[in-house]
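the two lines:
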Amino acid sequence: MSTETVEQVQEVLVKKVEPLFSKRRKKFVTDPLNEDNPITVQVLGICSALAITIKMEPTLIMSIAVVFVIVFSNLIISVMRNLIPNRVRIIVQLVVVATLVTVVSEILKAYYFEMYKVLGAFVGLIITNCIVMGRLEAFAMGNKPWDSVLDGMGSGFGYAWIILTVAFFRELFGSASLFDFKIFSAIGLSGFPTNAMMVDSIGAFMILGLLIWAQRSKTGYVEH
Amino acid sequence: MRRSNGYIIIFTAILTIVVGGLLSLTSLVLGPAQKKSIELDTKSQILSAVMQIQKGDDILDIYRKRIQSVVVDARGNEITTDEKGKPIQAENIDIAKNFKKTRENRQYPVFKFMNKENELQVDAYILPIYGNGLWDKVWGFVAVDEKFESIVGVSFAHKAETPGLGARIATTEIQTRFEGKKILNEAGEVVSVTMQKGEKGGGQASIDAFAGKPHQVDGMSGATLTAKGVNNMMLDYLTSYKPYFEKVKSQVSL
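prediction for all of em together
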């Protein structure tokens, strides 16, 4: 008799546990990649998208840093969400984000000094990146840790692929290289004229604009 | 849920302590590695005034083999200890801190770039320079020949000059313009090299336009004030280093 009840209890438990990658949870990751992209749809984090996308390498480092910060701050805030007093929640979020950003910046300074010099100020400015605070306030404060981690990944990767795309075109046409590899000289087009506009932030605006155009004409998103 | 003020105070206090502890731990753990990368960066900046540094060069090894450093004061005397009697090392001198002192009281590091074959022969003297740009500090290294007559190479860096305008001082395009320029006039006075206003086309055109003018280099379009800062910095430090080279020359002629 006793075994029966145990089985019943287990059955109930199993029913309650949602699979790690259920349909609902997959949407946390996939939505921000396209339909709810933080940069092209929500138009957040534009400042860094313009500033650091001149070349691929710093952009990649910046992407990794932002993904790291969003995922872990989402996780930490979500774990603490029931302890955080409502009146000081923004400050608490800010402290968590600032701590993670400082750690990233210190690690770069220790092991990747070249990038630290290039990105220096912008890594610090992740603190003010609206995407990070936005996710904490809108999602992590009211959801469970694992969901928040997935949500952080979604927004982080959504940010990353956009700035990497922008950087790809800017480095290709602005410096005629990719990851500092002179790609046009390598295929025998050493006289390829570089476009100085692409090195300027104007180039980022244009590519970002084209990206938003292409994406919105596909998804049919309209601003209300 | 509304929490009491006491809860909020305790919560924030604990948070502050945890975060503070975490950050000081990070700083403590990463400190040595950071010091090493800063050292590597400084040394490659020093070397970049005299050579093109390739990716994968063993900077520390080249530095150890080719660079000998001394510290001099404003009268040109070599100094080995500071006012308190502590030994000083050229690599550890904080140029920024010294910049704030009066010219007479600064310590001036000199990095001698030695000949590859003859270890006693100096190929070039590399001198750190420091000054004010348009928005913030600018600094760099000037390499001069052994007679303190012409410039072998320069490397500039900056904190916050305008990207695309003043920030160009950190590019090789601007820095090559200084190569071979003269420091002293015919009377032997330091006149340094002045970056002009306006720009004559950039690239090789800029170098050619000033080929016959030993004390001038082409300017940077739209960055006259940064250029002014660089000019002041060069004149300031080259003047300060002159007594040392007078001493070196008199020793050689003896």
